[in-house]
What we know:
This is GH22293. By secondary structure, this protein is α/β, with parallel strands linked by helices.
Amino acid sequence: MRHILLVIALLAPLASSAKLSSDVSKIPASVRTLKELHRGPPMQLISKRANVETRWISQKLDNFDEDNEEVWDDRVLINEDHFVDGSPIFIYLGGEWEIEPSPITAGHWVDIASEHNGSLVYTEHRFFGQSVPIKPLTTANLKYQNVEQALADVVNVINVLKEEEKYKNSKVVVQGCSYSATMAVWIKKLYPDVIVGSWASSAPLQAKVDFKAYMKVVGQAYRELGGDYCYNIIDNATSFYEDLFENGQNAEAKKLLNLCDNFNENDQHDQWQIFSTIANILAGLAQYQNPANYDLAKHCSVLRSFSTDDATALSKFIQWRLDNPECVNTVYKATVKYYKWAMHNYDGSSLSWFFQTCNEFGWYQSSGSKNQPFGSSFPATLYTDTCKDVFGSKYTAAKIEKYISEKNKVYGGVNPNVENVYMTHGGLDPWHPVGAGAAQGATIIPQASHCSDMGSISAKDSPAMLASKQRVAQLVREWLA
């Protein structure tokens, strides 16, 4: 009875997070789950209202072509509630998401800014949210979407602000989470005289096509925080469905997983896509878990509640996380079709971020590691093939490898050679294998997940989390001294 009550209590708060979108009937599950993995930073609990102003700052379409005079308007959010003229500018860098007020209204960065009477500024990355430089988002136009252009945009925001008398002598510090933490490291490398210091939370730095270590850490998180029984449910169920496909029982697998009629059970790409979708849904839960809240243990309890049969429980759990659709759409051609549709029908972030992975970073979470519970049925080839089929012949697997190698040469991978940058990672953050480690001076917070250190100092913080938050506050004092 206690177990049943626990599950009922969990379903209510978790149900809202299960809804990845309110109108997604035509969006393939693969696109939805990838977008969920790249959502914005954890929402901060706001205890008091802040006066957040929206400003639009003119940016060049191409920051590196003097002959190109095209401009566009970039959205920036500003909170000056604590600001005193001449005090520092605290920039929170936007990444592959639409910005909203909470990161500059509450949280540890806000607390630090308040200590220094700082102005809080949240920049929106080009081609995300409401900051779209050019349409349609064809391959030709997406040539303006890269990290160098985005960093130059941030520098321009700083320059525009400093034209105002009150900001004329303000020092600038930046913070970022995930990809925007990558930017926080690299902006200090490219523009060391503009920024006095950076805090990079969960920054991936080593561009990589086959990011097989990601799912390995996800599996580790389920084993450590959910228990062996939870890991085994996922492992057993995945093996069951893989065996069905491998032994010619494809139609049975399709039925049990409630896959849509147009799913071709004999098509390799469709098979890859269903297994990657399952893994990505479960990875999203691990990526943003909070050990203090026993998040993964709770999700594992819900998983088990659907059935005592592992395969049935996993199928029903996945459908529940997708808001119980009529059928699960993981058709490869539908994914390609959606991305091509999104070129002319802007959807917020999915296409523009996927382009960056093809053109700059990779980071394709594959089943390449044997030490994870998600099987071996979604190679990185699934994603490189999608790049080529969506963006054209310039994005073959070999060319993507070349682009990524060039990016690592420019920025140094996990050894960026920068000063006044504080890098933090959760010990169970699936992204930490491509980030700086202890050997590179990063702080590793045991059992913490992705961007998990952004909240205000709390009684729930582990000793390591508390020490890291205190450390970044002290470093900011030193940078601004």
